[in-house]
């Protein structure tokens, strides 16, 4: 993997983007660990309509979400920066890469997809009941339990995570309208033409055991863009939650150990 790694000091700042209906608080201590263990300067930015932006309507296209995130970049960020993006955040990152003016040095895309990956790969049939339950339930705890069970295979930590996720939702409520609007934006997103991404190094990471989005989506995108693909064998869709140690180890190999 060392031949795929970047120069140690090439990237000082990293942007972190979360996925569908999630916000920066859902990273838990993962970002702090990246700062401590990798020496990165990390900046988590919420997608429009969620987290710090929860009172705003979520746009109906990935491009509009990307443009809004770009407008909220920290003023002191060092360019070119890197991006770590999970799930729907990965779609935003792909669109950003296709429209980059040299401000992005590398992107690490985790458990992401696009419309051209195929519907049944983007949302596995077995995940549909949990998705509907999360959308239709009136109970915050019931919604968050359905989401947690769908995105995480590490059951041992669910009892600790569930009240944390409920507290996040109660503190900065994610409306069902915004979740539906995000789903519409995601459903419309086609991966950019490969020629638009040939100036930026990217990496795809996924899990063979993802029960929400098939790892075949990452395989398809990695092949399309000629980016390396790293696969976990047992983690769920939310890799930073299920195996942070492994994921940080992968980051270290890709970025630090050049």
TrEMBL record:
Pfam families: Abhydrolase_6. This is AB hydrolase-1 domain-containing protein. Residues 15-247 form the AB hydrolase-1 domain. It comes from Zhongshania marina. InterPro entries: AB_hydrolase_1, AB_hydrolase_fold, Carboxylesterase_BioH. It comes from the Bacteria.
């Amino acid at each position: 993997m060392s031949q795929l790694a970047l120069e140690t000091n090439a990237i000082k700042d990293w942007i972190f983007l979360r996925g569908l209906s999630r916000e920066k608080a859902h990273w838990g201590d993962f970002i702090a660990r990246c700062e401590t263990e990798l020496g990165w300067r990390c900046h988590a930015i919420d997608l429009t309509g969620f987290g710090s932006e929860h009172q705003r309507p979520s746009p109906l296209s990935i491009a509009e979400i990307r443009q809004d995130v770009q407008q909220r970049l920290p003023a002191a960020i060092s360019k070119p920066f890197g991006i770590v993006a999970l799930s729907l955040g990965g779609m935003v990152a792909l669109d950003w890469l296709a429209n980059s003016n040299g401000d992005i040095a590398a992107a690490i895309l985790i458990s992401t997809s696009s419309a051209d990956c195929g519907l049944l790969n983007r949302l596995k049939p077995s995940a549909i009941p949990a998705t509907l339950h999360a959308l239709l339930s009136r109970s915050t705890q019931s919604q968050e339990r359905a989401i947690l069970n769908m995105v995480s295979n590490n059951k041992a930590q669910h009892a600790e995570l569930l009240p944390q996720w409920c507290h996040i939702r109660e503190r900065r409520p994610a409306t069902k309208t915004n979740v539906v609007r995000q789903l519409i934006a995601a459903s419309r997103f086609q991966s950019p033409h490969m020629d638009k991404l040939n100036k930026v190094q990217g990496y795809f990471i996924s899990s063979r055991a993802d029960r929400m989005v098939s790892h075949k989506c990452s395989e398809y995108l990695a092949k399309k863009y000629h980016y390396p693909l790293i696969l976990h064998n047992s983690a769920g869709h939310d890799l930073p939650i299920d195996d942070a140690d492994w994921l940080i180890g992968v980051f270290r190999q890709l970025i630090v150990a050049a």
